[in-house]
């Protein structure tokens, strides 16, 4: 009878070691692994000295024959377009721009003499414009399963351009 009890105790412990994972633990890891994205940036064009005429910084006007000056510092937005889930900081690093959202630029502009009363002297940000493609490659279990591409544009202010018109 002592032998029977020992086997009964051993059998009662054994099933505890063979219990499968709970449903909660098994659901935490999806079947087939987790997809991972890898990003790259390919610059398609660079324009140095690009004037952003959509963002006037300052202006002045005077009577015919007079001149005016625009001499001051401006805080100008550094724009970086993102898409496909890539971060702004990643794109900035890949294209060689600061990740800061603004840049301080200073103007020292003096107009030539005004020739008519409708002319205005205007200051605009000037800088580097880069166009690029954002490429996202999605991998599952080490195999490429999807590639997506989106275009973007970034502007890095470097100074001020002034025009009389």
TrEMBL record:
Keywords: Signal
Signal peptide span: 1-25
Protein name: Secreted protein
The organism of origin for this protein: Nonomuraea helvata
